[in-house]
């Protein structure tokens, strides 16, 4: 009880100093709890949607893709005959059965030719209005479509895109485009995560979306009263007899589970990525907590000595410090849990801004979330305080009463330095082994080991490095400030362990920033270099939908275009002469002109021969695995097609990343084995301009695609910029998440300086008494902060660039061979770190400047 009272008294006596450490705990716990609440809420939202939209039993064609799987590349969904509905109605327990149509291979534009679909990754869905849709939607304005010129739109899209009844929409599908006026608005009864939904009458949906009458994509079956879904499924299968093998028959639960699996991978990636960044914040927070308690213990040396002198044991002193940590962990964790819920709501609003609607009505806080947050916060805080607590227990009564402070252990420092060197050396060897690896998989293991060991090594050896690095930085930056600069340098070097821990907190976040910057910039530079070397086409046409036959013809007839090349992707099972069969192998079917549009080197044969009749090429790795040579015959069983014997005419090398390992054949060869209605649409169309007419061809192609906003024409400059923008957007998201760790690190600098000022109160008073002005004092503290921040930045950026360069060597094995250091980013981060140091020192410097000189001198 006495220990608890003492701990409570000390905790409240230093509540201002504890506050900054508590903020680190709050932020870390908030990120963990916010991530859990956000991901649970997303799961709840999708679960409700899938449960509401699934009928009691659903029939789909057996070759229809499951939820989340890639659909047919023909631009039209798999279908079943309308006669199936009449058969299903005969089954016992069927209350009703109706044919339904659904397609996500569409783009819907408004009267200004602007895509009204979501921009956040959700689909645009088109289909017919059925009774089953009443489970999840209700018509809140107008009426359902009654003919080919009418369409009904979901209310969320109508609201976001400022659409109303009477407005005209144009739907672009694989079969062509058609227009219709909005006659109805339907509102979701559950949260719509962001999809755009349009409904047509059945005949229009069949004609325009499927290109055939009397066909449906699925059949919705409703059970009669008292009939379970499982019983209904069995009855339907029994009624269909042998024909049941042509369909997938699923209950509502099975359909909902399949849909849930389709989004679970996306949700898991987001969840674990955010938890990873929370872990980084926790790691940085550990340094802040260690520094806080180390300094508090040092400042209470005399008090600890008195406690020991009057009979307190080492365990009691140790326990007193740990109880303070426990109190800090509990308070910080409780606040963090509340902040995490607020963060989750903020993330939901952010997702709504980019197109994914999430309602706070579905906010889900599972019982485990606060428990996890509380346990993490408390355990991490107590563990971080263990070393300072142990050090406090070692204070001898007589040494403490003489104000000797905590015992300095030269042996411990030597062991620490030796251990740090060993860990760093092992980490450097790991990075070297990764860079020298022949296979990316093997090298990635060494890279992970090298990153972990060098990071731990730099943390352990930080106090030793501080003595050298801080002097070097000070020689460049602080000597110009005369005595004030030298005092700032000495203050930073006074306690290398403290400086090392404070700098390490900033080092971690900046090391990751530097590493990712190097990797991202190198990827863009490598892709750009390969485009320059390998791509002969002037223009690339692609978009959110495949290129329809009508568009292909218009592109081919565009003025100033010398030729166009179609690029289609097929799948097949390939049996090689060694008797082995590789299933689901991707094939690239192109026009013969592809050899001009993409320069591919061969290790055997000629690419032009691969585009001959009944011929193909394979990649070098595939050829080595199956001991293939030019002239061999390959048995190719095309998906949704027939089987043929193709001659191996060329073996391509594995250099670069464009079409790495691709297998090529002529489209005319593929057409011999795959019927026209099963032939995939082109994913991409390449175009070559007439010599000297690139600008005219570019303008003409853009005009050709004016009515097709789902597609985009890019020249090589545009394509390179798109790659750069995509990598830049990803890096910006990562930098934003790493900003949490950097904020915690800044708090660490603030806390260290604030406690350091308190620790040096008497010293500051004496300096002021002999003539140091307030301005000089504040400058000294600011310079000390800048040096500590630059020390952390220098270590972090150096470490991160080493990680990034090693990672690039692994990427080089996959064809990304250009290493590019983003010096503007590195320099900006380094300079920015100096401003971070200045900012962190504002409050401590202000408080130091306001000290009363006489009171400061009188301080014990």
From TrEMBL:
Q: Which Pfam families match?
A: FtsX (PF02687), MacB_PCD (PF12704)
Q: Does the keyword Transmembrane helix apply?
A: yes
- Taxonomically, the superkingdom here is Bacteria
Q: Where is this region: Disordered?
A: 58-80
MacB-like periplasmic core domain: from which residue to which, for each copy?
19-237, 502-700
A GO cellular component entry from the record:
plasma membrane
Single GO term (MF): transmembrane transporter activity
Q: Which UniProt keywords apply?
A: Cell membrane, Membrane, Transmembrane, Transmembrane helix
Q: Domain named ABC3 transporter permease C-terminal: which ranges?
A: 277-397, 737-852
Q: Give the UniProt subcellular location, in the record's own words.
A: Cell membrane
Query: Family, per the entry?
Result: Belongs to the ABC-4 integral membrane protein family.
The family database entries (PANTHER family) matched by this protein are listed as: ABC TRANSPORTER PERMEASE YTRF, MEMBRANE COMPONENT OF TRANSPORTER-RELATED
Please state what the protein is called: FtsX-like permease family protein
